Structure formats: structure tokens, C-alpha cells
């Protein structure tokens, strides 16, 4: 069983930044695709970003140019650097290592 633990969420003003972290239990972290998703109140969970074992990245249109996903395989950790945050980025952010999910971390962006 893999456990994913997110951290780094919080309350930030519009235009601010946050860095989310997700640490995974288990071995062979480096070979897996890792992703971030989010779920805003009353909405479905949506894709934000992913990073492959080779370090290739993919972003949702809403995240391009503002968010950066990265990974530190030595620490079994994936990060999501979020800049220029907007109120519409308010959501619970979830880490994903298919088929596992973390419990999420809440990001609230005030206007």
C-alpha cells in the first residue's frame, strides 16, 4: 500500500505563491508518473500537472505559465510551485501516483 502525504496548503492573497509537497511511501518512486489534481467546491476533480520518470511535464491550460511541477527522487517527493495565484485556484489539491491518492491539502486564495 502506497501512502501519499501532501503539505504546503494555506491561505494566500491573490498574486501570491505557495509550494505544495507530496511525499510518497514505498520504493521505486523514481519510475512512476506523479500528478497533481484539484477539486474546487461544488466541482469535479480536475487535472493540474504531471511529471514523468524522465522529468517531462504536462500542465492544464489553467496552470501553464504559473505552476511548476518538479520531483526529488532522493526524497520520494513531488512539488507544485504555484505563482500568481488567483481566487479561482481555490481548491483541495491532491497528489496522485496511480492508482493512489493523497488526502489533499487545501489552498485558499483571497481576492
Please give a quick description of this structure:
The protein is mainly beta and 111 residues long. It has no helices and 11 strands. The strands form 2 sheets. Strands 2, 4, 5, 6, 9, 10 and 11 form a 7-stranded mixed sheet that branches. A 4-stranded antiparallel sheet has the order 1-3-8-7, with no helix packed on it.
What's the topology here?
Elements: E1 4-7, E2 10-13, E3 18-24, E4 34-39, E5 46-51, E6 57-59, E7 67-72, E8 77-82, E9 91-97, E10 100-101, E11 105-110
Parallel strand pairs: 2-11
Antiparallel strand pairs: 1-3, 3-8, 4-5, 4-9, 5-6, 7-8, 9-10, 9-11
Primary descriptors:
111 residues, mainly beta, seven-stranded mixed sheet
General description of the model:
- By secondary structure, the chain is an all-beta fold.
- 0% of the residues lie in helices and 51% in strands.
- It contains no helices and eleven strands.
- Strands 2, 4, 5, 6, 9, 10 and 11 form a seven-stranded mixed beta sheet that branches. Strands 1-3-8-7 form a four-stranded antiparallel beta sheet, with no helix packed on it.
- A hairpin with a 5-residue loop joins strand 5 (46-51) and strand 6.
- The protein is globular, with a radius of gyration of 13 Å.
- The mean pLDDT is 96.
